[in-house]
Amino acid sequence: MKKFIAWSCALNIDIRPILKNILIDTPIPGSIKLKETSLSHKPVNITAEKHQACIEIREVAKELKKKGIL
Fold this sequence. Notes:
Blueprint: H1 2-10, H2 16-19, H3 32-40, H4 44-47, H5 52-66
C-alpha cells in the first residue's frame, strides 16, 4: 500500500476513492481537541496526548499496520 500511495502521488492521482473503502473497526469520536489542532497547527498527539480521540487515532494506526495498509 505504501508503494501504491507513493506511486499515486508521483502521478498526481486522487486515491481517496480507493482508500474510502478501507474499513476500520476503531471509531474516532469527534472532539473540540481535534478541531484545536488545526488552530494550533500541531498534531493531537502533541496538544492532547492523553485525550480519548488521540488514543483512538493510535488504535486506528495499529489496526492499519496489522492489516498491512501502513
